[in-house]
Amino acid sequence: MPEFRRNAFKAGVKARKLQIGFWQSLCSNIGAEICSDSGFDWLLLDTEHSPNEIPDLLSQLQAMELGTATAIVRPAWNDAVIIKRCLDIGAQTLLIPYVQNVEEAKAAVAATRYPPHGIRGVSVAARASRYGRVPGYLTKANDEICVLVQVETGQALAQIEAIAKVDGVDGVFIGPSDLAASLGHVGNPQHADVQAAMKNAVERLTAIGVPAGILTGNEDEARRYIDWGYLFVAVGSDVGLLAKNADALAKKFKSA
Fold first, then answer.
1. What is the SS3 assignment for 174?
2. Closest to 10 (Cα-Cα) out of 61, 70, 90
3. What percent of the chain has pLDDT over 70?
4. Which has the closest alpha carbon to 214: 40, 37, 19?
5. Looking at residue 169, what is its pLDDT?
6. I need a labelling partner for 10 at 20 to 30 A (CA). Which of 91, 109, 119, 149 fits?
7. E-strand stretches of the chain
8. Is the pLDDT of residue 186 over 90?
9. What is the pLDDT of residues 225-238, one digit of tens each?
10. Averaged over 159-184, what is the pLDDT?
11. Is 117 a catalytic residue?
């Protein structure tokens, strides 16, 4: 019989081990397969700002099976139906966008838990349980689900401790671009006020023992965030990597 799948990412952040990740926005199973074997601890499969749908996610999860990276799925919204569908196809770690308060954090957690601890609908033959072949999946699943919530506005930042302390929240991800926009510096997450807010956020989360995450495509920024105490850090994206290197390659020959 198939064994119950353990969540390596959840175990890593729980043990306070730095988890280096990479953003996947190209909606490509081949891209996910390639990057899953690059040595990253996790890959983020995005649906909020990418044209990814459930069949696309399924193919990407399948493509990552033999890689070293854990899949994290970002649903388009904090919606119980969307979350249920992501879990049923085998996602174990979810990054829930735009969580503004304790009530929304509780709703996110509840959507990932079977009753009586939540409202996740029960399917006895979904891919998550290897189509019903994993013994005891329904009683074990809650323990391996990892819920990360995004704090990305000034309003949410003001309540970050309360959000982070919600039972079932395993980590808090700071969204630099939306936080910058919320603080009046749209398009400029490097602004001193935004950087100060991100540093303040990780210090407050570290003080209460909750892992903090962030994304940047800049190496110097990534190292600074790690030094500040961010524990799960995405250090680039497939779109950024492809665009930057394609531009550089074209320039070499066009300029000649």
1. strand
2. 70
3. 100
4. 19
5. 98
6. 119
7. 19-24, 42-46, 70-74, 93-96, 146-151, 169-174, 212-215, 232-237
8. yes
9. 999 999 999 999 99
10. 98
11. no
d(CA 192, CA 195): 5
Cα(first)–Cα(last) distance of the chain, in Å? 60
User: Which residue has tokens 């309360």?
Assistant: 162
Give the CA angle between residues 191, 238, 29 to the nearest 5°.
145
Q: Residues, the chain, total?
A: 256
Candidate list 49, 117, 185, 191, residue with the active-site label? 49
Q: CA-to-CA distance for 119 and 100, rounded, in angstroms? A: 20
Q: Report the DSSP beta bridge partners of residue 174.
A: 151
Q: How many CB atoms lie within 10 A of CB 256?
A: 5
DSSP H or E segment with residue 237: strand 232-237
Q: Are 153 and 186 in contact (CB under 8 A)?
A: no
| CATH architecture classification, 8-254 | Alpha-Beta Barrel (3.20)
SS3 category, 115? coil
Token pair listed for 91: 């996602």
Contact (CB, 8 A) for 183 and 197: yes
pLDDT tens per residue across span 107-143 = 999 999 999 999 999 999 999 999 999 999 999 999 9
Q: Which residues contact 106 (CB under 8 A, 6 or more apart)?
A: 166
Taking the domains of the chain in order of start, what are their residue ranges? 8-254
Q: pLDDT tens for residues 33-72?
A: 999 999 999 999 999 999 999 999 999 999 999 999 999 9
CB distance 211 to 232 below 8 Å:
yes
